[in-house]
């Protein structure tokens, strides 16, 4: 069966849709998809909270079939947003695209968005080649998508359009011959992607230092708590300037815990976490503040709901035994 053609109607508009019309259509579609995603996610909140990695995948499974249906000839190349703004997805011959091409187009578009922040197997992230591959997909892909849609004024094709040979056009405009994309756009995007290949080697020393740090061991212990889905720990310094005291620097350790149950208001638990970090992290007593962030919720990227409570605890308010540095971490057995 041949792909149906689109009848051209006289119009003063250019064939290629401009950035703001595409952005407006994307914004409208995003709102509608968010409503659909939120409705579906409410049916499985406990599962999504317990499995944050699968939650993002479920969001992707919601978006993908919608894109295949609406952007292909099944939906006449028009999502609700595109239809409202009289836009359409076509190929260079002004023909509606097949569902297979629409699927490829959607996968290229959404992979960097849905994989960003996802949890990957340790074998993949610990491998430099695996990390390099993820860096190209996540950072290189996201950069290419944003850069091309903003600066590629000739064809207004983003990465997913360039690879699949598609265009977003004004549906009432006369057919025009697509111009070629400026070669320097391709060069810039390619150079950035290649630079991402080197990222794991560039940050290797910093990552090794983090792995050797006791924060990594404490993070593993916190992640093993019954009510904790995942944990993240970092340390750093914050500078502040005041008219009275001038420039001052405060050091901190920040702990973020995602919980299985909504117990974010448990201040005792938050203080226990801070105290445990203090006693089991080298040089923790030299920090001014231990920040504990407790969160409960989920995200499927297109929708989500999260509640967070932050506790800022001065190290001077915790256990005074700062000199007692525990090398062998005790098993945590807190009641809450």
Characterization of the model:
The structure is a single chain. The protein is α+β, with helices and mostly antiparallel strands. It has two domains: about 20-205, no CATH class; about 215-315, GMP Synthetase, Chain A, domain 3 (2-Layer Sandwich). Helices cover about 45% and strands about 20% of the residues. The protein contains 13 helices and six strands. It has helices at about 20-40, 45-50, 50-70, 80-85, 100-115, 120-125, 130-150, 160-165, 185-195, 200, 205-210, 215-225, 265-280; strands at about 85-90, 165-170, 230-240, 245-260, 290-300, 305-315. A four-stranded mixed sheet has the order 3-4-5-6. Helix 3 (about 50-70) packs antiparallel against helix 5 (about 100-115), helix 5 (about 100-115) crosses helix 7 (about 130-150) and helix 12 (about 215-225) packs antiparallel against helix 13. The longest helix has 24 residues, at about 130-150. The radius of gyration is 25 Å and the shape is elongated. The relative contact order is 0.12. The model is unreliable at about 205-210 and about 325-330 (pLDDT under 50).
Query: Helical segment tally?
Result: 13
Q: Domain count, please report it.
A: 2
User: What is the β-strand count?
Assistant: 6
Order of helices and strands: HHHHEHHHHEHHHHEEHEE
Mean pLDDT: 85
Taken from the alpha-carbon principal axes, the silhouette is elongated
Uncertain residue segments? 206-212, 323-328
Give the radius of gyration.
25 Å
Strand order across the biggest sheet?
Answer: 3-4-5-6
Distance between the termini: 64 Å
Structural class, by secondary structure, is: alpha+beta
Percent helix, as a range, is 40-55%
Main β-sheet description: 4 strands, mixed
Residue share in β-strands: 15-25%
């Amino acid at each position: 069966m041949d792909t149906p053609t689109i009848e051209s109607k006289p119009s003063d508009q250019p064939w290629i849709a401009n950035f703001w019309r595409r952005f407006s259509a994307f914004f409208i579609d995003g709102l509608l998809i968010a409503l659909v995603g939120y409705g579906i996610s409410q049916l499985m909140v406990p599962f999504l909270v317990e499995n944050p990695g699968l939650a993002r995948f479920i969001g992707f499974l919601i978006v993908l079939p919608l894109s295949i249906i609406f952007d292909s000839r099944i939906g006449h190349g028009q999502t609700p947003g595109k239809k409202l703004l009289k836009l359409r997805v076509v190929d260079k011959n002004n023909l509606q695209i097949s569902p297979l091409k629409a699927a490829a187009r959607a996968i290229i578009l959404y992979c960097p968005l849905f994989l960003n922040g996802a949890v990957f197997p340790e074998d993949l992230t610990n491998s430099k080649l695996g990390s390099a591959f993820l860096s190209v997909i996540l950072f290189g892909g996201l950069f290419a998508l944003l850069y091309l849609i903003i600066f590629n004024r000739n064809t207004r094709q983003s990465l997913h359009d360039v690879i699949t040979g598609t265009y977003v056009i004004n549906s009432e405009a006369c057919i025009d011959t697509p111009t070629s994309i400026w070669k320097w756009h391709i060069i810039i995007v390619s150079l950035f992607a290649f630079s991402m290949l080197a990222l794991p080697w560039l940050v290797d020393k910093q990552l090794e230092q983090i792995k050797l740090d006791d924060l990594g061991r404490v993070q593993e212990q916190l992640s093993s708590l019954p009510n904790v889905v995942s944990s993240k720990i970092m340390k750093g310094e914050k500078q502040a300037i005041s008219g009275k005291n001038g420039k001052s620097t405060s050091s901190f350790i920040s702990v973020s815990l995602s919980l299985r149950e909504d117990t974010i208001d448990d201040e005792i638990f938050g203080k226990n976490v801070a105290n445990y970090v203090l006693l089991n992290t080298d040089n923790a007593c030299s920090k001014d503040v231990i920040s504990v962030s407790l969160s409960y919720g989920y995200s499927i990227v297109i929708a989500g709901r999260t509640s967070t409570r932050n506790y800022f605890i001065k190290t001077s308010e915790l256990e005074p035994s700062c000199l007692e540095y525990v090398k062998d971490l005790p098993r945590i057995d807190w009641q809450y």
